């Protein structure tokens, strides 16, 4: 069985979802699914030297999967922060992937995700030309997400085009894997039949993300962090939707009244330079910024804080549960969420694994942080509850097997 995967980001790029892709690659190989990956030259979360090295690699057989993965790379200019240039880059990527999708030798099925959003339309075209099934992995609902960030509004030309692309993709996809029940409700309201949808939460590798005691965490020494302080941590994309302005404003308030509460930001993104400037201009000595770390150190990253943050601007996360939530819980840390009200709120409340506050409510967010700072034993117990929830519901084995089952079912049904 041969699976063609079209993706905008791939190894050695270091992004927040890298572990999900790595886990899937291993699951496919062990399930006798050969994978052909088509991707642009890497740029996210890597050094310029590594980028140059991989620009010269056009066709690889990844031997660590016993020859069960082939990778085709094509040259592409580096991703920047300009929205229009990024959109142009995505368009070029999709055009190149369309060519590969039509011309590569025999494949049994096609798999691609929802970034960039026009990729779904490319998949639909390849399906019609090659007459193969198409599986769509919906990690972000476009154009709803753009409305949530304020980049457009309903009934604008962008919205109309986005809905046309969305409907075209949903119509032609044989199966749509969504990451939450709220995602499922969203697209069913747009006319997608329930039998076409499979809910698979973004899991966490429960063996790779574990609690590392503070005295054993090497990142405290590496970045000269005070082991006696109370840390809240954010790990992931530092972009336009994560409401960093609110978070930094909050830290400015806490700097005077609660000097022992400190923030560590781990990651990269389009808004990182703005954050660095705000920290510098505001003389925020309670904020430390560090780059993405190697995946081998992921336990140390999510064990840095006494609590982990899940945050976004209002209207952005109404249908999603960020996968970093599971990593926070897997490391036995409580979740402090400042997010749109959705199933994340009920998960946190029902399992007593953190504190949920409404997106944009700075005072409630600040009070949640202070509450755990003043009740450290409660924070520890919430962290234990979160780990228990992960072990029961969100292990790597459960998540990857669901993807494998969907792929095999789609291919077998087509052959019958």
Describe this structure in words.
By secondary structure, the protein is an alpha/beta fold. The protein folds into 2 domains: 2-203 and 395-415, Rossmann fold; 214-393, Glycogen Phosphorylase B (Rossmann fold), CATH 3.40.50.2000. Helix content is 44%, strand content 17%. An 8-stranded mixed beta sheet has the order 3-4-2-1-5-6-7-8, sandwiched between helices. Keywords: Transferase. InterPro entries: Glyco_trans_1 (IPR001296), Glyco_trans_4-like_N (IPR028098), Glycosyltransferase_grp1 (IPR050194).
Query: What is the annotated CATH architecture of the largest domain?
Result: 3-Layer(aba) Sandwich
CATH superfamily of the largest domain: Glycogen Phosphorylase B
Describe the global form: globular
Q: Helical content, roughly?
A: 40-55%
Instruction: Report low-confidence residues grouped into runs of 5 or more.
Output: none
Might you state the CATH topology name of the largest domain? Rossmann fold
With helices defined by DSSP (H or I, 4 residues minimum), what is the helix count? 16
Number of strands: 14
């Amino acid at each position: 069985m041969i699976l063609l995967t079209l993706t905008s980001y791939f190894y050695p790029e270091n992004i927040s979802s890298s572990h999900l892709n790595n886990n899937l690659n291993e699951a496919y190989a062990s399930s006798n699914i050969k994978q052909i990956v088509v991707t642009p030259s890497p740029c996210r979360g890597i050094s310029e030297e590594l980028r140059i090295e991989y620009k010269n690699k056009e066709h690889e057989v990844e031997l660590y999967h016993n020859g069960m993965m082939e990778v085709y790379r094509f040259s592409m200019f580096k991703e920047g922060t300009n929205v229009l240039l990024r959109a142009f880059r995505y368009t070029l990527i999709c055009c190149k992937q369309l060519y590969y999708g039509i011309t590569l030798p025999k494949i049994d099925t096609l798999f691609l995700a929802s970034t960039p959003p026009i990729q779904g339309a490319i998949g639909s075209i390849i399906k019609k030309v090659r007459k193969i099934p198409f599986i769509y992995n919906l990690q972000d609902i476009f154009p709803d997400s753009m409305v949530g960030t304020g980049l457009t509004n309903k009934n604008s030309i962008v919205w109309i085009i986005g809905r046309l692309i969305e409907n075209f993709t949903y119509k032609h996809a044989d199966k749509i894997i969504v990451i939450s029940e709220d995602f499922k409700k969203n697209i069913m309201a747009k006319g997608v039949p329930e039998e076409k949808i499979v809910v698979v939460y973004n899991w966490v590798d429960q063996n790779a993300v574990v609690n590392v005691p503070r005295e054993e965490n090497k990142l405290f020494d590496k970045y000269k962090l005070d082991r006696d302080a109370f840390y809240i941590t954010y790990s992931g994309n530092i972009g336009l939707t994560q409401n960093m302005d609110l978070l930094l404003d909050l830290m400015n308030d806490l700097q005077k009244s609660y000097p022992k509460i400190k923030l560590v930001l781990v990651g990269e993104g389009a808004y990182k330079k703005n954050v660095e400037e705000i920290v510098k201009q505001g003389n925020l000595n309670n904020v430390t910024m560090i780059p993405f770390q190697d995946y081998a150190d992921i336990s140390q990253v999510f064990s840095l804080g006494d609590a982990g943050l899940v945050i976004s601007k209002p209207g952005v996360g109404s249908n999603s549960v960020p996968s970093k939530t599971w990593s926070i819980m897997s490391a036995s840390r409580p979740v402090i969420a400042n997010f749109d009200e959705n199933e994340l709120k009920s998960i946190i409340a029902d399992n007593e694994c953190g504190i949920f506050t409404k997106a944009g409510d700075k005072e409630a967010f600040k009070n949640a942080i202070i509450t755990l700072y003043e009740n450290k034993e409660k924070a520890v117990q919430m962290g234990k509850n979160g780990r228990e929830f992960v072990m029961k519901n969100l292990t790597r084995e459960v998540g990857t097997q669901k993807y494998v089952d969907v792929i095999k079912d789609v291919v077998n049904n087509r052959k019958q």
